[in-house]
Write a structure and sequence with these properties.
The chain has helices spanning 20-24, 31-38, 53-68, 92-99, 118-131, 157-160, 234-239, 248-269, 287-297, 308-311, 318-328; strands at residues 3-12, 16-19, 42-45, 77-81, 108-112, 138-144, 166-175, 181-189, 197-198, 245-246, 279-282, 337-344, 348-355. With 356 residues, it is an alpha/beta fold. Among the domains are: 3-175, 3-Layer(aba) Sandwich (Peroxisomal Thiolase, Chain A, domain 1); 200-242, no CATH class. The strands form four sheets. A five-stranded mixed β-sheet has the order 1-7-6-4-5, with helices on both faces. A four-stranded mixed β-sheet has the order 8-13-12-11, with helices on both faces. The longest helix is centred in the last third of the chain and has 22 residues, at 248-269. The protein is globular. 49% of the residues are buried.
Length: 356
């Protein structure tokens, strides 16, 4: 059984820079308030009606292919992670295949919805296909177009100030070097508190999920015995119940617990210590979370890569964007032990150890 290695990597972020001061114009907030709570100074937004989750993914994928020394036509499987797909269905995997101009190959494409942990989950899935010899060039993508679905008002500021747009991609290939490639991946979830960080409407629940909420919420659905219930109602629009919601403090407490836990799990399996990590790439959820994890693991500043200050939280795209940036900056070299870790909605959390 071969190991799988990252043979090529690329990322794309839109040109438009949106600073905290730009957001002040549409909501009651301040640059100081945002930076103190999240560490974010600016983020990128895609061009409406021109850029999408899929087009950004394609831009990142083309770079990854070039660096892997392959043409897009040589891709034989696609794993696409996102929570902001172009369409409700079909998923972005097939749209990316079309965007790359490789529909004649009719290769398989799978979409996963693991939010902030999406890329690490996608990497683990691709790793299994490569290790077993099923595929030789697997394209793994994390891409998000958050700016199209945020509440740009004071009501939505706690969520809106956090998120940005972007995409990252890698090409996974087999390697016969036992000391190189993905060493292990660890995946976990617990759905008990799913609604603490969620995008509930529009959805097909018809109000069913309300039994899991702390407070009863009236979304204005027709009576339960009415056929053809609609995804979104006038009441949802009036009340703003069709935007993402998050209980920040609850999520923070869970994240700072699960991040170190899943990293240690991977290290323990291989008989390694946190000090053996040459570069930690944490999901860019909140700079305060990353700093807490760094302190818990007793890592130096040069052992952790953070870029949330520039890009905000790009959810499934944050890990591959940060990984690519660190590599381009020369902070990841051949033989380095790289740790990827993420925590997010679901809740789901995951880690991967890679010998570069």
């Amino acid at each position: 059984m071969n190991r799988s290695k990252i043979a090529g990597i690329g990322y794309y972020v839109p040109e438009r820079v949106v600073t905290n001061n730009d957001l002040i114009k549409v909501m009651d907030t301040t640059d100081e308030w945002i930076q103190e709570r999240t560490g974010i100074r600016e983020r990128r937004y895609g061009v409406k009606h021109e850029e999408t989750t899929t087009t950004m993914a394609a831009a990142a994928a083309r770079i990854a292919c070039e660096r892997a020394g392959i043409q897009p036509e040589e891709i034989d499987f696609i794993v696409f992670a996102t929570l902001s797909p172009d369409y409700y269905f079909p998923g972005c995997g097939v749209l990316l295949q079309r965007e790359l101009g490789i529909t004649k190959q009719e290769v398989g494409a799978v979409d996963i919805r693991n939010q902030c942990s999406g890329f690490v989950y996608a990497l683990s899935i691709a790793d299994q296909f490569v290790k077993t010899g099923t595929y030789k060039n697997v394209l793994v993508v994390g891409s998000e177009m958050h700016s199209m679905g945020l509440d740009f008002s004071t009501r939505g500021r706690n969520v809106t100030v956090i998120f940005g747009d972007g995409a990252g991609a890698v090409i996974l290939q087999p390697s016969d070097d036992p000391n190189r490639g993905i060493l292990t991946t660890k995946l976990h979830s617990n759905g008990t508190y799913a609604e603490k960080l969620s995008f509930i409407n529009p959805g097909a629940h018809g109000g069913y999920h309300k039994k899991h909420m702390e407070e009863e919420v009236d979304y204005g659905y027709p009576s339960p015995d009415t056929y053809g219930e609609i995804f979104i109602t006038p009441k949802m629009i009036a009340d703003g119940n069709y935007y993402p919601n998050m209980e920040g403090q609850f999520v923070f407490k869970m994240a700072v617990s699960k991040f170190p836990e899943v990293i240690h799990e991977a290290l323990n399996e291989l008989g390694l210590q946190a000090s053996d990590i040459d570069m930690l790439i944490p999901h860019q959820a909140n700079l305060r979370i990353s700093q807490f994890v760094q302190k818990t693991l007793r890592l130096r500043d040069d052992q952790v890569w953070n870029n949330i200050q520039k890009y905000g939280n790009t959810t499934a795209a944050s890990v591959p964007i940060a990984l690519c940036e660190a590599w381009e900056a020369g902070k990841i070299k051949e033989g380095d032990l790289v740790c990827l870790a993420a925590f997010g909605s679901g809740f789901t959390w995951a880690s991967a150890l890679i010998r570069w």
